[in-house]
Amino acid sequence: MIKAVRGTRDLLPPETALWNFVEEKVREVFRAYNFQEIRTPIFESTELFARGVGEETDIVSKEMYSWHDGESIVAGLIKGWLQANPTATAYRQSTGLMIMRYEPDFVAQLNDGLVVLDVKSRPSKAAVDSLHEYTQFLREHTTDRNAGPIRSILVFPSRANVPSSVQEESERLGVKLEPVEYEPSQSLTLRPENTAGTVRAYIEHKLWDRGLNKLYYIGPQFRRERPQKGRYRQFYQIGAEVIGPASAGSESPARDAEVLEMLATLLDRLGISDWTLELNSVGCPNDRAKFNEALRNALEPVKDKMCADCQRRAVTNPLRVFDCKVPEDQPIIETLPRISQFLDEGCRAHFEAVKAILTKVGVPFTLNDRLVRGLDYYTRTAFEFTHGALGAQNAILGGGRYDGLSEALGGPPAPGIGFAIGEDRLVLSLQQKAPAESVVRKPDAYIAPMAAMNGEAARLARELRRHDLVIELGDESFRLKKSFEAATKAGAKYILIVGENEVKADAFALKDLATGEQVSVARADLAAKIRGERKP
Ligand code: HAM
């Protein structure tokens, strides 16, 4: 039996009703705060995450699903050339050098060949050497040594790439140069998160023209973590990002507070009350440089007692030491300096303003100056909402400001703040309160057709469904007893019997499955009756 891959899972009914319930509520709340949806691709170039999330983070260094897509440049060139020259076949392959020749019956005496050189990755000297090697090889393997000068084709990604020394040498050797189109291979990655993709889209589509962008997304993310309850390799995030030029107000502490207040409102609306908002400021690059220096100094005498990851982080990116989960390292981490001691005046004032608004609007928070978040792009406000009932994986959502991310990805300055909710974890918390069945919309009626009545029953179902009723349609082959069983199993409120007499009278037997009450209702009145409306 083929099973779902470790760390992935099927979401089945009735549980999916809870997911829909969450997503509907989320869209409703986001709409009230004037957020609009963005959908970015599920895979992006690996470089985006390496530069955005950070090489030293656990996500990028250990957890990404990455692969090489497309052919190597050389293979791509040869394929392109072969498509353009369908009668040619591969003849010999040697390191970095491919030689082809036409089929003999195509051009009998011709000793044509192809050599593909990736000039971009080879200095021109190496390209000239290959050219000589190739010409030499052809000379040695020529079937008819008297066939005249060797005619060969040297293929480059484009004419512009051909260095002049190679150009001159090929002319001297009588080798023809020919450009070929190809799609170079690239490293791709299933998105482990959606902030980098959103900021990439912001830059690519020049979204700054729209001023302040308030965007949200709902979709799967992928991380190769050790699966456990609340932690999966394919998981779902509901996230939002506020990003734009500083002139549009993107840097204002009012944005941070609005996002946090929106999250508090959302969790309350979903019926999740016992959450804790943990809040910190991780400062700006200036503060970070000083903090990193202090951390490095503090780690120097103790790092040898720490885990291998921490020893590495202590040198490359000391901030990431705070991501360490190894229990033995925790007492050492407890003694390290905290970012709160290094905030400059601007960051301090920004943080104070965020806290003041939160207090004013009545959103409670707890300060946690160990909270640095596991992604490198954060600046200033950083936060997590935790929920006690979740156990070890208690972070229901996380987020923060990322004022330098756009620039790190080659875009213009564009301060931003956002968050992502772990939807799997949110649903887990909800399940403890409301079983999925409680949000499933059960059928309003089950239509039971008698013999030869499938057509009439389908017609009636079509009419009732137009009135936004949930109708389950039975089959004429069912005996009445079986129809009743099926209606009860489906959780229908009514069973509606469609027999020859009913069709003739244009009135149908409608039975309330809970009370047993049965009435005959005219076709025109059925929808209103099922909905529980009184007759006008
Ligand atoms: P993150 O903290 O890496 O932040 O993930 C956000 C949330 O996604 C976590 O709090 C957790 O609920 C959920 N999550 C993460 N990994 C897993 C997993 N393996 N299984 C189940 N749930 C998981 C981000 O992703 C940032 N992009 C958030 C953000 C948006 N920051 C600014 N804007």
Please characterize this protein's 3D structure:
The chain has helices at residues 15-32, 46-52, 58-62, 73-84, 124-141, 164-173, 195-204, 253-270, 285-299, 308-316, 330-334, 345-361, 405-408, 423-431, 454-465, 480-489, 500-505, 526-531, and strands at residues 36-37, 43-45, 66-69, 88-94, 97-102, 113-116, 152-156, 175-179, 186-190, 213-222, 234-243, 275-281, 366-367, 379-387, 395-401, 416-422, 445-449, 471-473, 494-498, 507-512, 518-522. The longest helix has 18 residues, at 15-32. The two termini are 58 Å apart. Helix 5 packs parallel to helix 6. Helix 6 links the parallel strand 7 and strand 8 (175-179). 36% of the residues lie in helices and 22% in strands. It is extended and about 95 Å long. The strands form 4 sheets. The protein has an 8-stranded mixed β-sheet with strand order 1-10-11-16-15-14-12-13, with helices on both faces. The protein has a 5-stranded mixed β-sheet with strand order 4-5-6-7-8, with helices on both faces. It is an alpha/beta fold and 536 residues long. Residues 91-111 have low confidence and may be disordered. Histidyl-adenosine monophosphate (HAM) binds next to strand 11, strand 15, strand 16 and helix 14. Histidyl-adenosine monophosphate binds at residues 193, 195, 223, 225, 231-232, 235, 237, 239, 241, 374-375, 395-400, 402, 418-420, 422, 424-425.
